[in-house]
Design goal:
This protein is an alpha+beta fold and 105 residues long. Helix content is 17%, strand content 20%. The chain binds FE2/S2 (inorganic) cluster (FES).
Length: 105
Amino acid sequence: PSVNFHAADGSVETIEIEVGDSVMRGARDNMVEGIEADCGGVCACATCHIYIAPDWLERVGPAGADESEMLDCVNDPRPNSRLSCQIAMTDDLEGLTVFLPESQR
Ligand code: FES
């Protein structure tokens, strides 16, 4: 399934992410700029922060408890903030649209 990454400068990159891989892993494998992911995907760094497009929020679902706690420390948290390492790709997420924050810290 493909995911559209909107950078803070307005540019858009669409990449394919395999089912079961996290959105963070797909972004890193494809060199999408703006996702640092220092902890490698174990919900411990919060540098994989993204914003989910409002019309995708329901399908993506809410953050888990650990993730919500980490989201308290990101730059400019919003109600549609998620950590991209905690979103596993599914066929249902084909066309998912996310926005990258201006910076991860
Ligand atoms: Fe560290 Fe997501 S990669 S919290």
